[in-house]
Amino acid sequence: MNYSKIKSILNSIQSPIHSRIAPTPSGFLHKGNAFSFLLTWILVRKTGGTLTLRIDDIDKNRKRPEYLQDIFDTLHFLGIDWDKGAKNPQDFEANYSQHYFLEIYQKEIEILQHKNAVFECICSRSEILKRNNKNNYDGFCLKNNSTNTENQKKAAFRINTDFFDKKNILINDCQVNVSTEMPYFVIQKKDLLPAYQLVSLIDDYRMNINFIVRGKDLISSTAAQLFLAEILDKKTFLETTFLHHDLILDKEKNKISKSAGNKYNSFSVKFFRENGGTREDFLKEFCEWIHIEPKESLQQILNLL
């Protein structure tokens, strides 16, 4: 990411950005998360838009109270404010958890079923790896007409990525083939909970988000969600602008993963602030990432842009 690209984006925008930051309470937030949130905040505030805090807690098995608290602690440490969304962990649990919206997600799954765009899959991860020697699912249950109606709790729903002839999704001049990159991705897990790709799309749609900031590692996820939006006729989502920024790398040039935050090490913002790091120090690192002279406050960064 660099200053000139940010300026180019801002110069091209004709209306306010309505965006969101969407952390998951499955680990301590790391530097990569924080830089992405800062970039989103800057773009929203510079255009006079609105920022929503959406916490993706649909995966209840990985959610922990300490990780939820860390989201608010990190945002306050960074100086990021938001216009919509929970004010604190208690407000989130009482009013904003994605589990309050399961009926909305289920209706979309039923639409996909009605359109014959999904199929049941009873394969385990080990079975997929054994057949394929890789993580990408091979469409085994679709090709073998497998159904599991008598015991649906053991079946997942997958999207048929052969549903459309149009499989190449154009994202920022980049062509992504959904069938190759995200073949037959899951939209409902075996525990009957909706999966991330569906939930993220529906939440962005119902929140009227028109600009999404993500890392380059999520381009395939964006393609999957645009593919779903085509099937579900979510026109406003199809008009969303996506910015996929460069990733934060460690000393070995590997991307900082979510597990890096889980481990409470030097990559986590929690570790940084509890070991003497200040907001000013952190913002200076962010400035280096976007290739501008060091600034000590978000307002100074806004003024420069």
Summarize the topology:
Layout: H1 3-12, E1 18-21, H2 31-46, E2 50-53, H3 65-78, H4 89-95, H5 102-114, E3 118-121, H6 125-132, H7 140-143, E4 156-159, E5 168-171, E6 174-177, H8 178-181, E7 186-188, H9 196-206, E8 211-215, H10 219-232, H11 235-238, E9 241-245, H12 258-262, H13 269-274, H14 279-289, H15 298-304
Parallel strand pairs: 1-2, 8-9
Antiparallel strand pairs: 3-4, 4-7, 5-6
Helix pairs in contact: 9-10
Protein name: Glutamyl-or glutaminyl-tRNA synthetase
InterPro entries: Glu/Gln-tRNA-synth, Glu/Gln-tRNA-synth_Ib_cat-dom, GluQ/Sye, Rossmann-like_a/b/a_fold
GO molecular function: ATP binding; glutamate-tRNA ligase activity
Helix content: 40-55%
Structural class: alpha/beta
Q: Domains counted in the coordinates: how many?
A: 1
Total number of β-strand segments? Answer: 9
Quaternary organization: single chain
Biggest sheet: strand arrangement: 3-4-7
The CATH class designation is: Alpha Beta
Distance between the termini: 14 Å
- Please state the second-level CATH architecture: 3-Layer(aba) Sandwich
- The ordered string of helix (H) and strand (E) elements is HEHEHHHEHHEEEHEHEHHEHHHH
Taking all residues together, what is the mean pLDDT?
89
Largest sheet features: 3 strands, antiparallel
Specify the CATH homologous superfamily. HUPs
Strand content: 5-15%
Shape: globular
Uncertain ranges: none
